[in-house]
């Protein structure tokens, strides 16, 4: 092979790896997600008489899910979404057993009504595939890392419907540095595979589109109110989550946090069924409450959803918080719009979503990329206001557990 051919092969290898791996990851992620949804529908199928799940069935089904999670925890400890993303940096040190258990835990979490998104399961399944493939074709750690990172980016780009978000999230910290270019390419490839297969085979189920009421006219200056409400919701989630994790760490029995959290979540879900699942497919409940003028119900749902997500995450129900936080912001924004007649409901919901994510998820750049691409056009001002104000207030007024750890280790 000539010198020019070798140079060309070396130059084309990274983008080729990103495109092929990203597309494969997007395809595997969609198939896994469809399997999760099918199992979820099976678990929560209407009774023989056509009736939906009542409080007792909800409680017992979630408890059964918790029992399965306890059994899986005896095999191996599972990983969170953040841990899965960090481990993509060191693929050859990953434990196949831990990845497999994480995938099973995440699938059970989604199927049995956990108030979390499907990210952990999709990332774990793709990570398992990446580890196997890397064992056959990766010649060194760098190539194995490229395959692993491209797989993670393909999942995020497809599930969130946002390749830029995939580039911003994967890697150390949140940015769009030039070093993230291959993650962006893999995110595009994963997005195209995920979206194309969903539309052509599964009737567009599983796509990240969020339906809001039609945007209308309203007083723009009033948008600061839902933004501040969203900031409060995001801060409440973050601090409750930190407190719940600290409390769980103090429990002497390793199974105690999962058992206690599951029982509390089961009781909450039996009382307020709308807190179950990720919230992505439950947005209709918010729009119905908005149309009925049920501001009180919306406030209860928003607060209960925060508690549900915190309980699930602290109890080891593996998944992501972005879709639940979007749901929380939508409910709080809709409730705020009902209390302020001069406020456009769609704009209020978008502004509160953005602020809730900016403070609660603490990835404002990725949050903006996700919301801009999954919401209707014409909501740029509420989104930018929510992200901007939420980020500034978060940096100025709210300290972070992660920041404290970094300060201590600096």
Automatic annotation (TrEMBL):
Classification via Gene3D superfamilies: Clc chloride channel
Keyword Zinc (UniProt): no
Record GO terms (molecular function): chloride transmembrane transporter activity
Gene Ontology cellular component list: membrane
The keyword Membrane is assigned to this record: yes
Compartment(s) of residence: Membrane
Membrane topology annotation: Multi-pass membrane protein
Xref: InterPro entries: Cl-channel_core, ClC, ClC-type_chloride_channel
Protein name: Chloride channel protein
Highest rank taxon of the organism: Bacteria
Transmembrane portions of the chain: 16-36, 56-77, 98-116, 122-138, 181-198, 218-237, 258-277, 297-315, 322-340, 368-393
SUPFAM superfamilies: Clc chloride channel
Assigned keywords, A-Z: Membrane, Transmembrane, Transmembrane helix
């Amino acid at each position: 092979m000539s010198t020019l051919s070798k140079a060309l092969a070396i130059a084309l290898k990274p983008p080729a790896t990103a495109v092929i791996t990203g597309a494969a990851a997007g395809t595997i992620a969609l198939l896994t997600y469809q399997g999760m949804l099918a199992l979820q529908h099976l678990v929560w199928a209407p009774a023989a008489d056509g009736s939906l799940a009542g409080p007792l069935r909800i409680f017992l089904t979630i408890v059964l899910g918790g029992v399965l999670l306890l059994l899986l925890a005896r095999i191996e400890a599972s990983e969170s979404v953040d841990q899965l993303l960090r481990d993509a940096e060191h693929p050859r040190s990953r434990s196949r057993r831990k990845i497999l258990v994480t995938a099973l835990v995440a699938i059970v979490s989604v199927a049995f009504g956990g108030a979390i998104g499907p990210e952990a399961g999709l990332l774990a399944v793709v990570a398992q595939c990446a580890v196997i493939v890397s064992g056959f074709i990766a010649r060194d750690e760098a190539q194995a890392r490229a395959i692993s990172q491209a797989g993670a980016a393909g999942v995020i780009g497809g599930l969130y419907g946002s390749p830029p978000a995939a580039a911003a999230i994967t890697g150390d910290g949140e940015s769009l540095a030039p070093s993230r270019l291959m993650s962006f390419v893999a995110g595009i490839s994963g997005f195209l595979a995920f979206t194309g297969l969903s539309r052509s085979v599964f009737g567009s189920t599983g796509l990240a589109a969020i339906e809001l009421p039609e945007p209308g006219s309203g007083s723009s200056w009033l948008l600061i109110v839902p933004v501040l409400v969203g900031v409060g919701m995001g801060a409440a989630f973050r601090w409750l989550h930190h407190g719940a994790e600290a409390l769980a760490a103090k429990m002497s029995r390793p199974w105690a946090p999962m058992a206690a959290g599951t029982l509390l979540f089961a009781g909450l879900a039996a009382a307020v069924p709308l807190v179950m699942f990720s919230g992505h497919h439950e947005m209709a409940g918010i729009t119905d409450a908005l149309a009925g003028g049920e501001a009180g119900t919306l406030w209860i749902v928003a607060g209960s959803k925060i508690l549900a997500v915190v309980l699930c995450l602290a109890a080891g129900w593996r998944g992501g918080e972005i879709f639940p936080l979007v749901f929380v912001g939508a409910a709080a924004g809709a409730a705020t719009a009902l209390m302020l007649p001069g406020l456009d409901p769609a704009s209020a919901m978008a502004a509160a979503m953005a602020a809730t994510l900016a403070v609660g998820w603490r990835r404002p750049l990725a949050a903006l990329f996700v919301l801009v691409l999954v919401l209707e056009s014409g909501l740029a001002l509420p989104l930018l206001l929510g992200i901007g104000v939420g980020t500034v207030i978060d940096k100025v007024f709210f300290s972070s557990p992660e920041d404290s750890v970094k300060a201590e280790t600096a």
